[in-house]
Amino acid sequence: MHKKFLPLYVTCSLFALLFAAGAVQFENFGSLRVFMNLFTDNAFLIIAAIGMTFVILSGGIDLSVGSTIALSGVIISVLMQNYGWHPLPAFALVLVLGTLFGASMGAIIHYYQLQPFIVTLAGMFFARGLSSVISEESVPIMHSFYDDVAMFGFELPGGAWLGSSTIIALVVLALAIWLANFTRLGGRVYGLGGDAQSAALMGVPIARTTISVYALSSFMAALAGIVFSFYTFSGYSLAAVGVELDAIAAVVIGGTLLTGGYGYVLGTLFGVLIMGVVQTYISFDGTLSSWWTKIVIGLLLFVFIALQRYLVGRGQKSR
Amino acid sequence: MNTDNTLLALRGVVKTFPGVKALDGVDFTLRKGEIHALLGENGAGKSTLIKVMTGVYRRDGGDISLEDKPIHPANTGDAQNLGISTVYQEVNLLPNLTVAQNLFLGLEPKRFGCIDWRRMNREARELLAGYELDLDVTAALNTYSVAIQQLIAIARGVSMSAKVLILDEPTASLDADEVASLFKIMRELRDKGIGIVFVTHFLDQVYAVCDRITVLRNGALVGEFEAASLSQQDLVSHMLGKALEKAVHEKIEHADAESRDKLFELKGARSQALEALDLSVSAGQVVGLAGLLGSGRTELCKLVFGVDGLVAGDAELNGQHVRFTNPRQAVVAGLGLCPEDRKKDGIFGPMSIRENMIMALQNKRGWWRYIPMKKQRELAERYVKALKIATSDIEKPINQLSGGNQQKVILARWLAAEPRLMLLDEPTRGIDVGAHAEIIQLIRQLCAQGLGLIVASSELDELVEFSDKVIVMRDRRKVAEVSGNEITQQRIMQAIAGQPQAS
């Protein structure tokens, strides 16, 4: 076993442990159905958090994710309901706009040497404001294509359901793992997060990499917005408030170092699943307020940051 | 001149920064299969010249040609593609990536659009075998020592089809054995026809490994010499631009230390990193700390200064028990430390010289007793003058100064706080010959003013020159204490090597 995979193992085992605990305590918890529902309910978050993983690996942060999700939902629903667009061109437009939005944030961060925090914070207000300007009301989506896609899926044993959004999330996951660990761009992202100055001296194109990372994150957020609209059948400017923070939490619980350079995309999936399983546990219990989810996630975050601190400290000592 | 053999030629290169002409019409010629030393004091323009060659800076005038073709590298990636690779003093690799990734970043072998990890790891192992390194290439780079990282950086540079390899002070943080193996590899590469530019402050190393020498001074070319026909003394006077008064090696009158009051004492003191040891410093005494890299010199300084806590044993300052649990207590008690890693632990890079200087004094006074700006300026001006710090302005950010001047500012910082005991950890590392002599001069002056000093250094000749007592460390233990007339390089070396006393 390689020491560098340790946080990943911790995350996976924690998920298994939580799931097992639920299964022991509640009838029906330990089923494939509950497991698959974790994916169905959190598909959009998985996608957004994967985009966030790249940003954090590169040593940055993206606070605009939640707003971008809302904005893409609003654009799609307005184009469909008010202008009679078919969903597919609307999706394409939203993905392109999202990518451009992220790329411009990346360009501003790189060329003006600004903090990602502040640039994406501005992006967050911009996207949220823009979606409210487009439509303050929630816009319902009614289209046969949406019904077809939402119904599409495969029946699994035990009444479990592999739906379209889960499929999208899993495909995104596979592509993201490939991108992070089997392409040159991935190596550059890790390098940038490890030591930006050294990376530059080793010939890593810093500008292109930074811009790609933020473009990717916003693309993923736009895609998450599409998946989210299949879940809610509407576009609403106040949807997905704070999702960027859930995404960051999932990335960190997934074992990625917040300062960049260390971590794995697969860990982020388990980070989201852990948050999902806590939520499921609380809804199975029935007596606990759903806000307990936040408390548990807060504690988990704290434990994971402490764990990373410990691992990093030990790594430096062994040198 | 033999032009067929010319690999890299710079002609009349000019580089101007606001207010400074960093390079003024410099020529530099590197031949195939030679090791060429690039020497000069700090601020002479070596770094700028290298940065122009590697595309970090764009030149403002002149020509550069590689194998008779003019080149215009726009960035380091560009220069690498042309075949010019650089290994810097601080290893500029990525600590979080694996050894193999570091070797191949940007040129990873691919299969079906995926990085072929297995092939990459295999090729990395094969590549390192050529340097007699047998490492786990899948482990993160930061699990290896600086020396090995440096060799990995060289391997990377060469494997990127380097024709020109620039080594910018690669030996600064290596010990003698590591330097020897580095030199062996440099000679092997030379014999393969690679042109190597070697920048260093160690003149002995220049003669050990270099074929030719180019000397710069104040951004201008002084000359190009055959190493074999240039004496070390001539070389130094070329670098300084004046005949050097024969380095004063006569022994100073050793303070009759034992009769004086002890200023600071450690008795059986132990830290997490060090085994129990005794140490005593009197006022006006210089205690040298000798030993190889990692022998515990730095750890001893940290122990005295309260960075590492005392695990067992006793510390006394002026006969009073003290137990520093953090450096602040040490500062308030009148200690000062110039750390080994100036850049990381010593300077506040973007802050001005003045701000850097008053830091210790202000901390000692406490934040509620602000030092008036007028007083700050006076203080800064006084020390800039007293320590001959070369700067146009006390408000200049410290990271724009050369290494030697930065070191002087840090010294000034502590002197302003009027300490009783100063700890200097490698005060002359990475500092050019001229500033080197000045710093040694300073150490003596301070000592004469009644300060106690503890100076850790890897340069034995310098320790012999100023120490009243030398403590030799090995494997995190104190192995010998030499004082008075017994202090000779030979005696210290024997102790470091673990041989019994010859007498």
TrEMBL record, chain A:
Keyword Secreted (UniProt): no
The membrane topology noted for this protein in its Swiss-Prot or TrEMBL record is: Multi-pass membrane protein
Q: Would the keyword DNA damage be found if you checked this record's keyword annotation?
A: no
Looking up InterPro entries in the UniProt record yields: ABC_transp_permease
Alphabetical keyword list? Cell membrane, Membrane, Transmembrane, Transmembrane helix
Q: Where in the cell is it found?
A: Cell inner membrane
Family recorded in the similarity comment: Belongs to the binding-protein-dependent transport system permease family. AraH/RbsC subfamily.
Name the chain's protein. Answer: Galactofuranose ABC transporter, permease protein YjfF
Species for this entry: Gilvimarinus algae
Q: Which gene encodes it?
A: yjfF
Automatic annotation (TrEMBL), chain B:
Alphabetically sorted, this entry's keywords are: ATP-binding, Nucleotide-binding, Repeat, Transport
Q: What is this protein called?
A: Sugar ABC transporter ATP-binding protein
Pfam families per UniProt: ABC_tran
- Source organism per UniProt: Gilvimarinus algae
Residues forming the ABC transporter domain are: 8-243, 257-500
Q: Which SUPFAM superfamilies match?
A: P-loop containing nucleoside triphosphate hydrolases (SSF52540)
Q: Which InterPro entries does UniProt cross-reference here?
A: AAA+_ATPase, ABC_carbohydrate_import_ATPase, ABC_transporter-like_ATP-bd, ABC_transporter-like_CS, P-loop_NTPase
Does the entry feature the keyword ATP-binding, yes or no? Answer: yes
Molecular function in Gene Ontology:
ATP binding
